[in-house]
Write a structure and sequence with these properties.
Largest sheet: 6 strands, antiparallel
Distance between the termini: 56 Å
Strand content: 5-15%
Oligomer: single chain
Structural class: alpha+beta
Order of helices and strands: HEHHEEEEHHEHHEHHEHH
Shape: elongated
Number of strands: 8
Helix content: 55-70%
Number of helices: 11
């Protein structure tokens, strides 16, 4: 009995030595945390860089909309001469400056010739003018230029919400992939330790068989156990390698250069520590999801754009009534003369135009169609808010449940370890069998693997909760 205990104790000492060497080797590797991954992605990932261009695209759309208010300089020159006679020479230069309501213009024209239309005749030195055109009916409160500009301004907020949505989705996918890799790697490490223990036990059993302390069948059982664990380890190593390749999909360098995880880089379980959330934290996340979730924000902006469209369409029901006034004078007239009351009342060009469709079918149809779009968008907004709130609540419940499961699993592991040690002691005393020792060990191993699985699920749940709330930068 003493000799058997001595041999078994020697084998266990060898196993502890191997595990310690394994740990030292692991300490020499480089740890790649999830924050390292997300930080690298935020700088170089093509999807992030593409999403960052949404805001720039919106700024260019705003610039295009503002172009409707750009001043315009125009000049026209026409001349007709036949048989040495100047039929007409028409020359007109104008500067048009669109303002928020209407248009201001200033110009100079000079027309001459025997066939110039009477209303276009100008003094010999030409005619200079300055005037304003103002809509009184349709176009007074809003017109196509102002509606387009307002919608372009809101499109900037829409682009920002779209950018956040794309980046959040990408970061969530990356987080899930990283935690899958972390589980696969730590599972393979645990199975490697288990294989080392099984190998040590096999050698110890074979030695005892040679010395006649155990039957030969015991060495077969120990060998089968070692082979089973080797098969599990190889499968786990292959899964860990494939999981690392999937993580590499999110790694990019400058100039869109794809990168791969270098050898010796291992994942970390940092970030899987339990961090319970209070009801206040949940309320804050619910408020965030209700008001600032990207999907909610996009619909809110869409409603504001539709409201601008409704106001513009409703203004179309008004008649077109435009007034135009131009102060005129011969070329070279001093600007001081234009301000004299007598001059203002005797040198001007005044005009007005009026039109209105009799049935307004097109205008009324567009207005009703816009109202229907607004109603549909409001219902979609309410549904999206409800789904977002329920998604946050469900993610919070899952996180809370995982915290309870992890606490329970740690207790199960502690009890399983007591059983394994007790069975080992009974085996050393000759009161148990190798089969029961292997069974206790495998049960402890499975419970430890389940704990790794729960912790990686918890890591995913933390990021999923932030994604559900519409904010995924760092899982709290």
């Amino acid at each position: 009995m003493r000799r058997r205990s001595y041999i078994l104790g020697l084998g266990l000492s060898w196993a502890l030595l191997l595990v310690s060497r394994f740990s030292l080797a692991s300490d020499s590797t480089s740890v790649f945390t999830i924050q390292d991954l997300l930080t690298q992605m935020a700088v170089h990932h093509p999807v992030v860089r593409q999403a960052n261009q949404f805001s720039e695209q919106a700024r260019q759309e705003l610039r295009i909309a503002r172009s409707a208010f750009d001043p315009v300089v125009a000049s026209k020159f026409y001349q007709k001469e036949l048989d040495g006679k100047n039929y007409f020479t028409l020359w007109d230069n104008v500067l048009r400056v669109p303002v928020w309501i209407g248009e201001v213009k200033a110009g100079y024209e000079r027309n001459s010739g025997i066939n110039v239309n009477g209303e276009n005749i100008t003094p010999r030195q030409g005619l200079q003018y300055v005037g304003i055109s103002v809509p009184i009916g349709q176009g007074l409160l809003i017109d196509e230029r102002r509606a387009t500009l307002q919608q372009a301004k809101q499109a900037q907020e829409l682009a920002e919400a779209d950018r956040v949505k794309h980046i959040n989705k990408l970061l969530l996918e990356a987080a899930k992939t990283y935690w899958d890799w972390a589980y696969a790697y730590h599972r393979s490490q645990l199975l490697a330790q288990s294989l080392q223990l099984a190998t040590v036990r096999l050698q110890a059993v074979q030695e005892r068989v040679r010395q006649g302390d155990l039957a030969a069948i015991d060495s077969v059982e120990a060998q089968i156990e070692a082979q089973n664990r080797l098969a599990l380890l190889r499968q786990a190593q292959m899964e860990s390698q494939n999981a690392a390749l999937l993580v590499s999909n999110f790694l990019w360098g400058q100039d869109n250069t794809p990168l791969e995880l270098p050898k010796g880089v291992v994942p970390s379980l940092l970030g899987t520590d339990l961090e319970p959330l209070s009801e206040t934290d949940l309320a804050a996340l619910l408020t965030l999801a209700k008001e600032r979730h990207p999907d909610v924000a996009k619909l809110q902006i869409k409603l504001r754009q539709l409201e601008v469209d409704r106001r513009f369409t409703q203004s179309k029901l008004l008649p077109k009534l435009n007034l135009e006034y131009n102060l005129i004078g011969p070329g070279g007239t001093a600007s001081e003369q234009w301000l004299e009351e007598r001059y203002l009342s005797n040198n001007y060009k005044l005009g007005a135009s009026f039109s209105v469709p009799l049935f307004l079918r097109q205008e009324r149809g567009k207005l009703q169609l816009t109202r229907l779009k607004i109603n549909a968008a409001q219902m979609e907004l309410e549904q999206t808010r409800r789904e977002s709130l329920n998604l946050v609540q469900a993610a919070y419940n899952e996180r809370q449940q995982l915290e309870d499961q992890i606490n329970l699993q740690e207790q199960i592991i502690a009890n399983s370890r007591l059983l394994q040690r007790g069975e080992q002691q009974r085996f050393e005393n000759g009161e148990s069998s190798l089969f029961l020792v292997n069974t206790r060990e495998m049960n402890l191993l499975n419970q430890q693997l389940k704990l790794y699985e729960l912790k990686t699920k918890y890591g995913k749940a933390k990021y999923y909760l932030q994604w559900a709330a519409g904010r995924l930068g760092a899982a709290d």
